[in-house]
Amino acid sequence: MLAQLYINGEWVDSSGLERIPVEDPATQTVLAEVPAATEADVNRAVAAAKTAFGEWRWQSANERAGMLHEIAHKIRAHWDELVELLTREEGKPRSENEEEFEWSANTFDYYAELGRHSRGRVIPSGEPRTQLNLVIEEPYGVVGAIVPWNYPLLLLAWKMAPALATGNTVVIKPSEMTPLSTLRFVELCCDHLPPGVVNVVTGAGATGEVLVRHPDVPVIAFTGSLATGQRIASLAAPMMKRTHLELGGKDAFVLGPDADLEPSIEALAYAALINAGQVCTSSERVYVPGTLANDFVEGLTEYVRRLRLGHGLEPGIDMGPMIGDQYRAKVEAQVAQARQKGARVLTGGRRPPGLEHGYFYEPTVLVDANHDMDIMVEETFGPTIPIMTYNTFDQAIEWVNSSKYGLGATIRTNDPLLAKRFFEEVKAGTIWINDPLTDNYAGPFGGMKYTGGARELGEEGLSTFMETKHVHWDFSAEKKSWWYPYE
């Protein structure tokens, strides 16, 4: 399979010859090759989107809503094909990808309806009999959507749906590791949109940089690593370009001193290991009270040992591979350093025997961890559960807030006073109490501190793609007493 670029409603070849192989991370088999889009390719895509914006912005909200609902309908109609393709190129179990497509379809439905609402308000005027003051929210124009590999369709939907609903057009740059499901999604689900409203350019970082630098792209929406987000911010700053950056995290999981152990064990295993820990909101550091530590750690270790690894399309699989060798190597390095500094691995900590092909790594539980270890302070993005014990709840909150990241945090407790104190004092964009990693279409998602200030989902996710204008309208058009010459 040799993919093409999608520009102005057509599948076109790149102007360059470079191709990027796309692997199945469970088998290391090359599934296809995609073009490394050149600067000329990106310029074509942006020009098409800019031209399409001239008409798309004036489509009625109802017309746009109908088109977004149609995208959701087509996702569901092509469910099996899209889920299988995503499982092959991204690796997580089929059941998790089914959930991703359900959320993606629902996101388009949600923003189809939210986009119908009036945007703006009438504010009091200095002369209410002869003046009208309006606050208007209007689309920016062309949105550059740079999407990560771990949830390529869902995180695209979180950007694309509100951008289109508010009248913007889009140029998508999917991850070079998972572009195939995005290309097939656009082919199957977006063919009814006017040409140029949605465009796709594939490629690696160089392609993304061209999109970020382009003067006709006023907004860049990006989810990914801190380093790449900082690079985007530096490139966009000279143009005062709007950047919408969600840059990962180092989310904490706190076991309250009153928590029930069995459901807490299962909640933590899910929060830390879904998609092999390759989730920006994964619970990557765990704080357990010393009074519960022995029983909790013993139960968690036994639970994690029973998880089944394999290809995501195999039945009964709990965890698939990591996305690539460099990501697995990072996890291995963090585990090795933690061991060197005194941490103990109770289960995992190795490549699983019998799965030599593919980028598999066993889910790993570590104890005796501390904040001198990278695995407790730097983003891991892999299937590890490092655990520290705390003496007081004050200490636990201090440790949670010690991170430079502030995406999310979870507490397991039955005590409403502890829960209230936790969500009031912890600096994170999302606080989960007892039910980690759940999303809500109407609730904003995003972080604080080095995670960035972007918000997706909810009304905030819609406002991200609109800029505000104040209109001061004087009906009388008469000379005013405060104009020159002064008396």
What is the CA–CA distance across the termini?
79 Å
The best one-word shape is globular
User: What is the helix tally?
Assistant: 15
- Strand percentage lies at 15-25%
Main structural class: alpha/beta
Low-confidence stretches: none
Helix content: 25-40%
For the CA atoms, what is the radius of gyration?
24 Å
- Mean pLDDT score: 97
Give the strand order, joined by hyphens, for the main sheet: 14-15-16-13-12-18-19
Number of strand elements: 21
Major sheet details:
7 strands, mixed
Descriptive report:
The model has no long low-confidence stretch (mean pLDDT 97). This protein has helices at 39-56, 61-77, 79-90, 94-114, 152-165, 180-189, 205-213, 226-236, 261-273, 293-305, 325-340, 374-377, 393-400, 416-425, 458-463; strands at 5-7, 10-12, 19-24, 29-35, 120-123, 131-139, 142-146, 169-173, 198-200, 219-223, 242-246, 251-255, 283-289, 344-347, 364-367, 384-390, 405-406, 408-412, 430-433, 448-449, 466-474. The strands form 6 sheets. It has a 7-stranded mixed β-sheet, sandwiched between helices. It contains 15 helices and 21 strands. The chain is of the alpha/beta class and 487 residues long. Helices cover 37% and strands 21% of the residues. A hairpin with a 7-residue loop joins strand 5 (120-123) and strand 6 (131-139).
